[in-house]
Design goal:
about 350 residues; 3 domains; 19 strands; extended
């Protein structure tokens, strides 16, 4: 029987949201774009470069653009207009020739001057070209008095070219709106809740038993400090949060009632509550942040997803759970939750 080799694969949007670390030499394929990456065992997917394939044929030449702000004709006009009226001071080789105005002999090489390369010193180019065109038979030494005009030409050209460059390479964050609208987790927490635990407000930690508000605990909570400056508005779209939670029950239903999961402010009281433990005071859930699981069944996996809500006031927060009844005898639940963010 023929052997089939299949690479790790998924849609572009799936790779973007999961953002895994591929093993060294492991290939990941985007099935909707045909692009692929090869892992190094260190970088996440979004930080890896795409692997290059065989170079394709050269494409057709594109249409000429409509931006004609820098052309040979308008640069020639600037140069010609500036040079056709200026004064030369001659050193007196002949007492009858002191000064003259060159309004009658505009340089014939204005077109050539207009095409001087950007990396050439324009002032030097103008000086050399013009001095050649004014080579008189009596070889009079002379100096230019219009350096300010030449400087203004160079400054004008620099401004025009820089302006076009800045326009061509100015981008906004809206260039990738799909990424900004994808949910990213900024807080992950998990914990277990066991038989006989009373109804109350609990906080999630790092896989430890849930900590009840106002009672000393050995186990750390997963605390996040939210600062609105860390989550700016992008392209007019404000940052929004939501809660996603999974509750898994053993073969005894926990109770008849509700698990209400949400984002809660948390504070530390002035006293620790005893040696070796910490007390946390868990406040009421942030408005709009909660999602509810009702009458969860035995042997069940429950996926709870809340709605988007606005960033709360700056401060310390946890993912908290409010239970409406005591846990049943022999019941046991595992809870995993994340706080997610996107700009929408």
């Amino acid at each position: 029987m023929a052997q089939v080799i299949q690479f790790r694969r998924g849609l572009y949007s799936r790779w973007l949201s999961v953002n895994p670390i591929l093993a060294e030499g492991e290939m990941g394929l985007e099935i909707d774009t045909g692009k692929f990456k090869v892992g190094n065992g260190v970088l996440h997917w979004n930080n890896l470069d795409y692997s290059s394939g065989i170079k394709g044929d050269k494409g057709d030449k594109g249409d000429t653009g409509s931006d004609a702000s820098v052309t040979k004709s308008n640069v020639e006009a600037v140069l010609t207009g500036a040079i056709t009226s200026h004064t030369h001071d001659y050193e007196p080789v002949n007492s009858n020739i002191q000064t003259h105005v060159t309004s009658a002999h505009a340089p014939s090489n204005a077109v050539a001057l207009a095409t001087v390369k950007a990396d050439t010193d324009i002032s030097d180019a103008l000086s050399n070209k013009h001095s050649n065109s004014l080579d008189h038979s009596n070889s009079l030494d002379h100096s230019h008095t219009n350096k300010s005009i030449l400087d203004s030409i160079q400054e004008a050209l620099t401004t025009i070219l820089k302006g076009n460059y800045d326009t061509a390479y100015t981008h906004s964050q809206a260039a990738n709106p799909a990424f900004n609208s994808v949910y990213r987790s900024i807080l992950e927490a998990a914990g277990s809740h066991i038989a006989a635990k009373a109804a109350g407000t609990y906080g999630l930690g790092q896989g430890d038993p849930l900590a009840v508000s106002g009672t000393g605990t050995l186990y750390p909570l997963k605390v996040l400090y939210i600062d609105s400056a860390d989550y700016p508005t992008i392209d007019g779209k404000a940052a929004k949060l939501r809660i996603r939670c999974i509750i898994e029950c053993n073969d005894v239903a926990p109770f008849t009632g509700t698990f209400t999961v949400g984002l809660h402010p948390v504070t530390r009281p002035s006293t620790s509550g005893g040696a070796g433990v910490c007390i946390y005071t868990i406040g009421s859930a942030v408005s709009g942040s909660t999602v509810v699981g009702t009458n969860l069944a035995a042997d069940s996996q429950n996926n709870l997803v809340g709605a988007d809500f606005a960033l709360p006031a700056n401060g310390f927060y946890i993912i908290g759970i409010v239970t409406s009844a005591a846990m049943a005898t022999s019941s046991h639940v595992h809870i995993s939750a994340s706080l997610q963010i996107r700009n929408n």
